[in-house]
Amino acid sequence: MNLAKFPRRNYVKTPTPVEYAANLTKLLGGPEIYIKRDDELPGAAGGNKTRKLDFVIADALAQGADTIITCGAVQSNHCRLTLSACVKEGLDCHFVLEERVKDSYNPESSGNNFLFQLMDIKSITVVPGGADMDAAMNKVADDLKAKGKKPYIIPGGASNALGACGYVACAQELLEQCFAMNLNLDAIIVPSGSAGTHAGTLVGMIGNNANIPVHGIDVSRPREVQEEKVYALAQQTAELCGVKGGIPREAVRCYGDYYNPGYSLPNDGMLEAVTMLARTEAILLDPVYSGKTMAGFIDLIRKGVFKKGQNVLFLHTGGSPALFVYMKEFRDWFKKA
Ligand SMILES: *Cc1c(COP(=O)(O)O)cnc(C)c1O
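# pyridoxal-5'-phosphate complex -> structure
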């Protein structure tokens, strides 16, 4: 594997910290818990998309683009970080936002939506849940081309094979950190959404023959559907990076029980996990991705899937701006807890 063959913008200047979560480990009484702080990546309020955009924006610039079009949910962290990169690079930026929850787009809302406005997004096209996002982005692109612009489309979550290379690089970074720390990991826990994070991390581990299992916690799809999505992207990513021998299907593992009642909709496990991390480690998770992923991890510890004597690393992918959209749910939870 030689990731240096791809153009990059070098958004990731230093490795993100790997921290031992002493208080959380003690409270849960299970494995030794380590947290990789990808929530501290550069970009406006950081997060996992910075690693993928490092490769994808470089490709856009190499192709002579002056405008980026991308898509996401109404509180998309990916859209926020794409806009952040565009501001720095001097590129125009346009969004297509999907109302995965009916009527959920509110231009007055807080969190990432406010940051879209603060960083001066050029246009937002809102489409209903289940709409064809590629078609909607192509339409925006055609309109811009007619005006003489050179648009480049980034798929949702920047989760194509090139974007996933950002997480292949993260896996390599992590392996070096673990070597320096004498830390022998038994497992890695990642959120599994548009799948670039999960697929890239897995390809990086397999490409390095590390033999460390990568467990995805689903944030939007049932296990069977998500595993196929991760598997397909992992194969494309392995091909692109030159990982020989392919990706074994059984290396793709997802847990699908923790995102219900649906993508971005709060549940008790998420409320407990976000509150627990804030009050033990002063770490801010988010309600849509890292909170539900941590809820899954906590449940799997309680069920004995991960246990004392093991070292397990949780990849914190960021997303905390979305917390402020869920204040009411949290305040109700504080009263109950
Ligand atoms: C996008 C996102 C994820 C999911 O990562 P994918 O690569 O889309 O699977 C997880 N956490 C946060 C905070 C995100 O914004």
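# post-check
The two ends are 48 Å apart (CA to CA).
Residues 136 and 246 are 33 Å apart (CA to CA).
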